[in-house]
C-alpha cells in the first residue's frame, strides 16, 4: 500500500495572522514538503494543476521534475492532470520524459478539474468536457503503447505517422489513475481500461465514496481485468494532529472555520463526523483511517491533504512528520496484514515492468527509429512486427 | 392506491407559533380527511400518515448542505421522507414577493429529481391579501421547473383569513373553503394514480431498468465470447448515470 500527500497549491491567508504567502514562498515550500515526505517514509507526492489564482501550480511537470531531481524513492504524481485542456500529445511526451529522468517514479491522476473557465483559456469547449476527456485519454494511451500512431478525432488535429518521444521507459507507460468525485462516467472510464480509480473523498461522506468505488470495481470486473476486489483504488484524506487531541482541535479550528469550501458551513465536529477529516491525536487518525477499507475494500493508495486553509509552512512540515513517523507505519502494517493475497499491491514501475516482461519477454530499449523512412522510420504497417 | 398514504408537510414559517404552521396543519388535516373519504367510497380503508417538518429546525443543516454539497444525516431523513411520500404539502410565508429564503434554500440544497411527478399542494401566508398573487407568480413556477404535479388550487392565507368565520364574513371564498377544495383536488389526483411514478423509488427503479437494458445489450455481445453476465448492482440511481465505454468508443 502507498501513502502520500497531495497539494492543490492554493494561496490562502493564514486566518490567525492574516499572513499571505508569496507565490515563490508557496512553491519553495511545496518542494520542501515533498523532500520531507520522502525523508519520513511516505511513498507519494502529488500536485494539482490550476491555471488561475489563488493557485500556483500551472506547470506540474516542471515542479515534479525539480522535486524528482532532489529525491530518490518518492513517487511523483498529480492531483489532477487536466486531460481536457492539455493536449494529449504533450502529456504523452512530458510524462514519458519524467519517467526516464526519474527512473520510472511517476504516475498520473487524470481529471477534468473544477474550473469551468479553464476550457476556453486553452481553446476547448466546456460543454464537451466529458467527450474531450474520453477522446483525449484514448489517444494518450495509444501514444504510449503504439510506436507509430495514425489518429483522427474531434478535438485536435489528426496525427499521421506520429511517434511520441521519448518512448515510455522500459516500454511500459506510466500508471494512470482517474480521479472523479461525482461522475460515474469517469469511474466507468477507469474500469474500461483497467486503470486505477482515485476518489478524492475529502469533502464527501463515506456513503457516497463507497458507492462510487463499488461502481468502479463492478465495471472493472465487467471488462475482464480481474475480480472487483482486484481493482486499483485510491482515496483522499485529511488530518490535523497534535500529540494531545485537544491541542489539535484548538489549533486547527480557526483554519477549519475559515477554510475554502466548507468554511462558514458545518461545525468542525459535524464535518469530521461526516467526512474523512480527522482532527486529534495521531492515534485517532490511525483509528479512523483503519476503517476506510471496511467501506471501499482493500485499496492501494491513501493520499492526505496537509497544506491547505492557510496553515503555515512550519506547521505543515510538522504534520507531514507526524504522518510519516507515527501514523503511516501503523496504517501500513495493519492494512497490509488484512489485505488478501489476491488483491494487488500498489502499482510501481518496477512491478509493471516485471508484469510486462512476464507477458512479452524482456524489453529491448535499442533505438529503432533511424531507418530514414518518413520521420521515424517506422511505418504503421510495420508496427505489428516490431517488438515494443 | 396503497393502503397507507404518506404525506409530508413542509412548513417554512420562522416564528413559533406561526401562521404558516397553522395553514400547514389545516391543509394536512383537510388532505387526510379528503383522502380518507375517497378510500371509504372505494372498498379499501386508507390510512393517512402525515409527517410535518418545521424547516426552521433544519435551517443549519440546509445551509451546511448548500456549502458542503451533501446533506447530513438529519437532513437526509427529511429528504428520504419526501422521496417516499405520496404527496407533499409545502407552505411558506411570502417575503419580498417570494418564498422565504429558508424555503427556497431547501430546494436549492437537495437533489431536484425527488420532486419529479410528486403531487405538491402549495400554500403561502402573508400579513395582508395584497401579497396573494406571489404564490402564483413567484412560488409556483419553481415547481414547474422541478416537474412536480402541483395541485391546481393553491392556498393563500392572509392574517385576516384566520380571523374570519367559515361562512365568508371576510371573503367570498373563505380560507376553509379553499383549503377543502385544494385537499379534494389532491385526493382526486392521488386516486387517479398521479404521482404513483413519482421521483425517488420509482425513479431509482427506472434507472435500474436502464442499467438492466444496458447490461442486457452488453450481455448479448458477451454471450458470443462466453463471458458471464455481471451481477445486478445495488447502487443508488445516480451511479447508473453513464454510457458504457465500449459503446462510447464505438467498440461495443
From TrEMBL, chain B:
The keyword Protein transport does not apply. Gene3D superfamilies: 3.40.50.360. It comes from the Bacteria. InterPro entries: CE1759_FMN_reduct, Flavoprotein-like_sf, FMN_Rdtase-like_dom, NAD(P)H-dep_FMN_reductase. Its EC number is 1.-.-.-. One of its GO terms (molecular function) is oxidoreductase activity. PANTHER family: FMN REDUCTASE (NADPH). This is CE1759 family FMN reductase. It comes from Brachybacterium tyrofermentans.
